[in-house]
Write a structure and sequence with these properties.
CATH superfamily of the largest domain in chain A: Aldolase class I
CATH superfamily of chain B: Glutamate synthase, alpha subunit, C-terminal domain
Distance between the termini of chain B: 55 Å
Strand content of chain A: 5-15%
Number of helices of chain A: 16
Number of domains of chain B: 1
Largest sheet of chain B: 11 strands, mixed
CATH topology of chain B: Pectate Lyase C-like
Distance between the termini of chain A: 64 Å
Oligomer: heterodimer
Number of domains of chain A: 2
């Protein structure tokens, strides 16, 4: 639309806001959508690597080793996970995604030597069969939960919350409750399904410790137990999860994706991934558990730069969800005409709750799902994971690191004052971090009597 | 052959670690001839007692149990001769779990099959998120029982607390005594012959066959909240 000069758009009531108010007045229900937060947030883009210099030497880009393997679950589990790369696939449910899409996630992850994760709908044979390493989620809804799948899994993830909606339960609207989904979830077909937001049989960290104990007993202490939290009171959540006995913390920042959640929840609850990583590492370090309890970070991981920065801040691995779906074929320009038919466009499609996905990924419609080839999708995901890994290695070598885990905060600077304040990293070009501690030290130095320094 | 005439494996938790007990119980899975009878002494409120068992065996726990006793049970018949803590037989798949005393919160949470019998009272959230299992409570149940119960049956011979069956799906609830209050979308429904029949079977299985099915009231979902409608916003 062409806007004539002199017509001034309100910053407060921009076109999106006006459209939303009109939609709300018309429909009388909050906006539900998929994807993650779309607003501008402090993120890894606000950090830069310093790279090698006179005082640091780099590694040769294609010759010298830069290892990427990661072991998860070294604290208590008898069978920790051995991953070839520090990028895992986040939990996404069968129900939210089609069975072929879940299969493709398993294929891609397995080809790359990493893990994939079930979701709020139980474990499907397609997913287990095509996933060399599969993490099985224990969610508040307990849809599909059973001890056989618990033992078939390679690790167990107790989901307390997710970044897109910390404090909220899952949501699967009626048109995605097919016969198979209904059977797996023990629900009537076609209803709007509301997953519980609290676990049914434990409340608080003391109970969680006992719950984890039960899961360990049922699985004879073989499986690593992850605890996944949405980023909110991250410092305390991480310390409490460690106290409860977690082997691995999965921390999902507010940019983390969802298949269906209220827009108001996605955009207004939780904290960004960037400060959350720092808080989590601080919590682990204070307990003397950094690298003993592994930290997986998710929420807006798109590139090897994001991976490398998360690792440099202290994460052991990262997890991807939205990016994995895009790699499979979501939002593809090849589907422009089909997106137009449902009022969307490539690059904008976020109605994953609707079940009309022309890519056949976020749907339970048999015809749409049939379009998606899990072998091709798996290959694309494997390619993408390979690029993420190569990019991470590129940056690590540039910083002179022979393992991606050797990246450290000292390799980074902040590009913005807010990123500096959130991470404690110095602002690029100066040696000052905009943290309360730095200000306190500066104030103390300024107020000290002359000649005392 | 009576149980007393058969060999009984006795495990004294005063001298045996819980891990060893559970491992021995798990080792019975898939055996052609598992050790059929087990007796656990001095449980002393231990958590995760006899959880994850998958064998047609009988386990008698001689005393009080802590959290998650008989969790995710398959096939086994487990009796707690005492009281049980939070999450009794959570996510049970099959078999029978019986408590001679009372039980704490969330008894039978997400139970998918099998039968849970509480001879005393059950606390809050009994049968929460029920997914196909059966629960019979000889006494009363606390508030929020059968919350979000999806399928399966819960029978209460005593009274039910507030918000019974809140956000219930297709589970069926039978209560003989009073109900302090019904939760969102839970309503009383007609007790028909087929319900009396299934009630009689459940009562018999739970050792309460003296109770008259005709004395019970049936509760279930009004199904008004199955699909979001703005006119029901006040109920969400």
């Amino acid at each position: 639309m062409t806007v004539s000069a002199g017509l001034r758009e309100s910053a407060l009531y921009d076109r999106n806001m006006i459209h939303e108010i009109q939609r709300a007045a018309r429909e009388g229900i909050y906006d539900i959508r998929g994807f993650g937060a779309k607003r501008r947030l402090p993120h890894f883009d606000d950090l830069l690597f310093l790279g090698a210099s006179v005082s640091r030497y780099p590694l040769e880009g294609y010759r010298e080793r830069c290892d990427t393997n990661v072991t998860l679950g070294t604290r208590f589990a008898r069978k920790p996970l051995e991953l070839k790369i520090p990028v895992t696939i986040a939990g996404m449910s069968f129900g939210a995604l089609s069975a072929p899409a879940k299969e493709a996630l398993g294929r891609g992850a397995s080809a790359a030597g990493t893990s994939t994760t079930t979701g709020d709908g139980g474990m499907t044979p397609e997913e287990r069969g095509h996933s060399d390493i599969l993490v099985y989620q224990l969610l508040p809804s307990r849809y599909g939960m059973n001890p056989d799948d618990l033992r078939r899994a390679d690790a167990i993830e107790v989901v307390v919350g997710q970044g897109a909606k910390p404090g909220g339960g899952g949501m699967l609207l009626g048109h995605k409750i097919s016969d198979r989904v209904a059977e797996m979830r023990s629900l009537p077909k076609g209803i709007d399904q509301r997953s519980a937001c609290r676990h049914p049989d434990w409340t608080g960290p003391d109970d969680l410790e006992i719950k984890i104990g039960e899961l360990r007993e049922i699985t004879d202490w073989e499986k690593p137990i992850f605890v996944k939290v949405g980023a909110t009171r991250t410092y305390y959540d991480v310390q409490l999860a460690v106290k409860a006995g977690a082997d691995v913390i999965v921390l999902d920042g507010m940019q983390g994706g969802t298949a269906a959640t209220q827009e108001v929840f996605i955009e207004h609850v939780g904290i960004p991934t960037l400060p959350a990583v720092v808080l989590a590492v601080k919590a682990l370090e204070e307990l003397g558990m950094h690298r003993k309890v592994q930290l997986i970070v998710s929420g807006g991981i798109r590139t090897g730069a994001d991976v490398a920065k998360a690792l440099a801040l202290g994460a052991d691995a990262v997890s991807i969800g939205v990016a994995a779906l895009i790699a499979l074929g979501d939002n593809s320009p090849d589907l422009a005409e089909e997106y137009a038919k449902i009022g969307s466009a490539p690059g904008f499609y976020d109605d994953w709750q609707a079940g009309l996905d022309p890519a056949g990924i976020s749907t339970q419609d048999a015809e749409l799902a049939e379009r998606f080839d899990p072998i091709v999708g798996g290959r694309r995901l494997a390619n993408y994971l390979s690029v993420l890994t190569l990019e991470t290695q590129t940056l690590a070598r540039a910083c002179g690191k022979s393992h991606v885990h050797n990246l450290e905060p000292e390799d980074l600077v902040a590009l913005t004052i807010e990123a500096s304040a959130m991470t404690g990293l110095p602002l690029a070009g100066c040696d000052f971090a905009f943290t309360p501690e730095s200000f306190a030290a500066a104030m103390a130095a300024a107020s000290a009597p002359a000649g005392t320094e | 052959m009576s149980a007393t005439a058969e060999r009984v494996q006795t495990v004294d938790l005063a001298s045996t670690p819980l891990r060893e007990l559970n491992q021995r119980l798990h080792d019975q899975a898939g055996l052609d001839e598992p050790e059929r009878h087990w007796r656990v002494l001095n449980p002393s409120g231990a958590h995760a007692l006899a959880c994850g068992v998958d064998a047609p065996i009988e386990i008698d726990i001689m005393g009080h149990a802590g959290y998650y006793c008989a969790g995710m049970n398959k096939q086994a018949t487990i009796t707690v001769h005492g009281n049980a803590g939070v999450g009794l037989a959570e996510n049970i798949m099959s078999g029978v779990v019986r408590v001679t005393g009372s039980t704490s919160q969330a008894a039978g949470a997400t139970a998918r099959g099998g039968l849970i019998v509480v001879e005393g009272d059950a606390s809050a959230r009994c049968g929460i998120s029920l997914k196909g299992g059966d629960i019979v409570v000889h006494g009363s149940v606390g508030h929020m029982s059968a919350f979000m119960a999806q399928t399966g049956r819960m029978v209460v011979l005593g009274d039910a607390g507030d918000a019974l069956g809140d956000s219930i799906y297709e589970a069926r609830i039978y209560v003989r005594g009073s109900v302090k209050g019904l939760g969102a979308d839970c309503v009383e429904k007609e007790l028909r012959d087929e319900h009396r029949q299934e009630l009689a079977e459940l009562l018999a299985a739970a050792g309460a066959d003296g109770a008259d099915p005709g004395d019970f009231r049936r509760y279930g979902s009004a199904r008004n909240l199955y699909t979001f409608h703005i006119d029901n916003a006040g109920s969400y």
